[in-house]
Design brief:
With about 70 residues, this protein is an all-alpha fold. It is built from 3 helices and no strands.
Amino acid sequence: MLKLVLITLGIVAFSVLFLCIKILLKPGSKFGSTHIGGSKAMRKRGIHCVQSMDAFERRERKHAKERKR
């Protein structure tokens, strides 16, 4: 059982290191955007981040309330 856990941890550690090798070795590099709004294809389709859409809707409602007064 312990042998299986150690093998699994070794594989996971190697995978993470392998995925980060470009970022670790290249100066000035950073992780890419993980938000949907950072994808050109999603922006092209008009799909935005949920947080951005929520903020937009809340802003629109706030202005609608102010206009009624």
